[in-house]
Amino acid sequence: MNVIGLYFIKNVRITDDGKAIRTFCVSGFKETAIGAASGALWGTLIGLIFLMPVVGMAIGAASGAIGGKLTNLGIDDKFMKEAAAKLQSGSAVLFVLVRKATTDKVLERLKGVGGTVLRTSFDHTKEQELRDALADATAAQAKTNAPEA
Question: Which SS3 state, helix, strand or coil, does residue 98 take?
Fold first, then answer.
């Protein structure tokens, strides 16, 4: 059983010398393929009206693929660039777009990981649970890194 189903993951980390390294891990979006398939279907149906279904299918598939390619679903590019620009060397940011998740199991597995939530579409209760799960590790790490008196 999957605990989390993802559409999109992008990782940006800043090396000690200040270089940004971007890793695009997963994309569950298939906008181009979906656009081509739906365009071909509608093109065929419209082509049947004019007794040219093959031509209609070709034109529909091409225009659907172009439309799908131009579709921008997911996390706002401007937000990702702004968040990555604020990183300090040796740190990283993880952008995740979740399709579906078993929230209680995800939160259980995130405890002890650490981190800060910048933006989420969770309701307030789930968002606070996520922040609390990540804060437990952040607070523990702060205690271990604190200078001894």
Answer: strand
